[in-house]
Amino acid sequence: MTDAVTVSPLRQRMIEDMTIRRFGEQTQRDYVRQVREFTAFLGLPPDRAEPEDLRRYQLHMASLGASYARMNLACTALRFFFHVTLGRIGFGDLMARIPTPERLPVVLDTQEVALLLAHARSLKDRAALSIAYGCGLRISEIANLKVPDIDSARMLIRVEQGKGRKDRYVMLAPDLLDLLRQWWRVKRPRGWLFPGQQPGQPITTRQL
Q1: Cα 186 to Cα 202: distance, rounded to the nearest angstrom
Q2: In the chain, which residues fall in CATH 1.10.443.10?
Q3: What is the four-CA torsion angle of 124, 129, 131, 132, rounded to 10 degrees?
Q4: Among 25-29, 80-84, 117-121, 175-179, which range has the highest average pLDDT?
Q5: Is the confidence at residue 40, as pLDDT, over 70?
Q6: How many CB atoms sit inside 10 A of residue 52's CB?
Q7: What single DSSP character describes residue 47?
Q8: E strand or H helix at 60, and its extent?
Q9: Residue 108 has pLDDT above 80, yes or no
Q10: Residue with more model confidence, 104 or 175
Q11: What's the mean pLDDT in 94-112?
C-alpha cells in the first residue's frame, strides 16, 4: 500500500502490521483513515489516547449520525491499531460494536433482470452484468477474471482469491457462455477477460 503524503513511523508500522496479515489494500486504506479521523478528533498523537477518549469518540460519531457500518469499522480499526501496532492488549475492548439490522435484499424478477441487461450500454457491460447476476460474482471478482478462467469444457468459471481470499468454481450457463464468446470475438482479450485502460492491467472496479 502506498501513500502520497509523508508517512509517520507509527502509520508505517500499522501498514506493515496489516501487510504481514495480508489485509487487502482497501482494508488498509479504511483502517488508516479511521485512525487518522480519530487522531483529528483527539487533537493529540493517537498513541497518547486514553480509554475514555475512545468512548468520547464513539459518542461523537453517534451524535453526528454515523452509520452502523462506519461505527463498527472505526471500532475494528482502532482495536487493531491499539492491540497490534501499539501492543496495548485490551485497550479499546469496551468500545461498543453496534448490531447491524438485518434487511432482506431487493430481488429482481426475471422480467426486471432481462430489462436491465437489455439496457446495458455495451456488450462489455451486458457480459459483466450477466456474470454478476448469473454466477453471483462480486464486482471485484468480475474485474479480475482471466480468459482461461472460463472453462467451457466443464461449464465452470474459476474465481481466484474471491471472498475470504479463497478460490472457487461457479457454474457457467450455456447462454452466458454464448455471450462471453460474443465478447471475445469483438475484443479478443488475451489475458484479462475485461482489460483495463492501462496495458496489461484488468479493468478497475470503478471503470466497470
Answers
A1: 17
A2: 110-187
A3: 140
A4: 80-84
A5: yes
A6: 9
A7: G
A8: helix 51-63
A9: no
A10: 175
A11: 77
Decide if pLDDT at 93 tops 90. no
Please provide residue 186's backbone torsions phi and psi, each rounded to the nearest 5 degrees: -80, -50
pLDDT of residue 162: 63
- Select the CATH number that applies to the domain covering 110-187 from these four: 3.40.50.2300, 3.60.10.10, 1.10.443.10, 3.90.550.10: 1.10.443.10
Under 8 Å between Cβ of 74 and 61: yes
Which set of grid coordinates corresponds to residue 85?
501496532
Contact between 73 and 113 (Cβ < 8 Å)? no
- Residues contacting residue 65 through CB under 8 Å, at least 6 positions apart: none
Q: Does residue 43 sit in helix, strand or coil? A: coil
Q: What angle (nearest 5°) sits at the alpha carbon of residue 165, between those of residues 142 and 4?
A: 80
SS3 for 173-187, per residue? Answer: CHHHHHHHHHHHHHH
Give ranges for CATH 1.10.150.130 in the chain: 9-86
CATH fold for domain 9-86? DNA polymerase; domain 1 (1.10.150)
pLDDT at 60: 95
Q: Quick one: how far is CA 74 from the chain centroid?
A: 16
